[in-house]
Amino acid sequence: MKNISKQLLLALLTLALAFGLFAIMPVAAGLADEEPEDPFTDVSATDWFYDAVIYVYDNEIMQGSYNEGEEPKFAPAENFIRAQAAMIFYRLAGEPDVSEFENSFSDVVEGAWYVDAIKWAEDDGIFQGYGNGKFGPNDPLTREQLATVVGRWISEPKEAEEPEEAEEAMEAEEPEEPEEPEVTGEVEEAEEPEVTEGLEWPDSASISSWAQEHVITLTEMGAFKDMPGEKFRPKDKAIRADIASVLYNVLSGVE
Predict the structure, then answer these.
(1) Per DSSP, what are the bridge partners of residue 30?
(2) Helix or strand or coil: residue 77?
(3) 178: which residues sit within 8 A by CB, 6+ positions away?
């Protein structure tokens, strides 16, 4: 009888352990499949761009750098070039076929990693180049250019606007002979730069005319609300954290 009781007890114990193990295994497997909340070593929960970086990463809009032997990084302070910006919107569009599109820019090399994205971005009206036959794929994207391309992306298609301002000088035309100034003894006051109504940044006067409408739209949407500082700094180079923050606030509808 004692042997039977021991055998029965051993059998029950074995069943209990087996069922307990099976109950635990799915939970452990689920935990193993979960990705870390913050995959980047250079992004902290206290950073102003933290939520934006996690959003663009989780939604496969932006990625980090994964160099062999190094921890993954997002490089939030790194400058963003114009070709990379074109690639983001091209991917968001589903990377449509552009085999029938022409390459309008002399500095966009066929076969380059960005050529399809730039062809699509020009055809869609998001990017229009500098107006001198060049796109500047490796030029840093400025903050007012960022506002412009995002503004065009979220708006309805329309007629071509003014081209983005080039960082390099346009080909110089033959100068005309300067006219002799008329001496009157009176000093004219310098004209104030024209600023579109609705721009409320302290440095609004330095925002290019072709960018002003888009800056207003995105400001009203709260696209720039997380960026530090009181000024817009339109000519500053946009960094990866800026791109992530604007896309996060626009796409997620954060108010």
Answers:
(1) none
(2) coil
(3) none
Q: Are 143 and 206 in contact (CB under 8 A)?
A: no
Q: Which stretch of DSSP H or E encloses residue 250?
A: helix 240-252
In Å, what is the CA distance from 23 to each residue of 10, 11, 14, 17, 34? 20, 18, 14, 10, 18
pLDDT at res. 66: 73
What H or E segment, with its residue span, contains residue 13?
helix 2-33
Q: Lowest-pLDDT range, 14-23, 193-202, 211-220? A: 14-23
Q: Phi then psi for 140, rounded to 5 degrees?
A: -60, 140
Span of 1-5, 86-90, 164-168, 195-199 with lowest mean pLDDT: 1-5
Q: Tokens in use for 180?
A: 């002799």
Q: Is the pLDDT of residue 191 over 60?
A: no
Distance CA 91, CA 84 (A): 11
| Number of Cβ atoms within 10 Å of the Cβ of 89 | 20
pLDDT, tens only, 20-34: 433 333 433 443 445
Would you say 137 and 118 are in contact if contact means Cβ atoms under 8 Å apart? Answer: yes
Contact criterion met (CB below 8 Å) for 109 and 134:
no
**Would you give the distance in Å from CA 58 to the centre of its chain?**
14
Quickly list DSSP for 82-126: HHHHHHHHHHHTT----TT-----TTS-TTSTTHHHHHHHHHHTS
Number of other residues whose CB lies within 10 A of the CB of residue 47: 15
